[in-house]
Write a structure and sequence with these properties.
4-stranded antiparallel β-sheet, 3 helices, 7 strands
């Protein structure tokens, strides 16, 4: 059983981003409304929303069990239990074949009905993210690339 947890350094980074965004919104609304009360409410709302996202919504841990199950936990409560063999796993969306370098989402598509969902692994370290993808079977390192021949007319 292997457990992947959110890193404290990424939480610290997103906390600093929340404070900067709140200050920016405070200054912006103060410039246009000339009201300290409205500016304070707007800045605090942005800070609270971003901190909620960082410490509540993105505070997950992923456990890979020996019996081929993936458990997604938030505050020691299992929010998703997924049988690994019933899904196709990828770091790319089924609607796209590109991704940004900062994207750390894991996409999975049900083999029976084709429904897609994703797991946001933004707060994981890059090494943990790569190891998780490898254990899910998305990284095929020993296979030769497929060569495609084109015919020019």
């Amino acid at each position: 059983m292997k457990e992947f947890k959110s890193k404290w350094s990424s939480k610290l980074f997103w906390t600093a981003c929340a404070l900067c965004a709140g200050l920016f919104i405070f200054k912006l609304t103060a410039k246009f409304t000339h009201s300290l009360f409205i500016s304070s409410i707007a800045g605090l709302a942005v800070i609270i929303l971003l901190l909620y996202k960082t410490y509540i919504l993105d505070n997950i841990s992923i456990i890979l069990t020996e019996d081929k199950k993936l458990l997604v936990k938030r505050f020691n409560n299992i929010i998703k239990a997924i049988d690994i063999d019933n899904y196709y796993w990828s770091e790319y969306s089924k609607y796209s074949n590109t991704k940004d370098a900062e994207d750390q989402d894991i996409y999975y598509v049900n083999k029976e009905n084709g429904e897609q969902d994703s797991i946001d692994c933004t707060n994981f370290s890059g090494d943990d993210y790569e190891e998780l993808l490898t254990q899910l079977g998305t990284k095929n390192t020993n296979q030769e690339p497929v060569k495609v021949e084109t015919i020019k007319k």
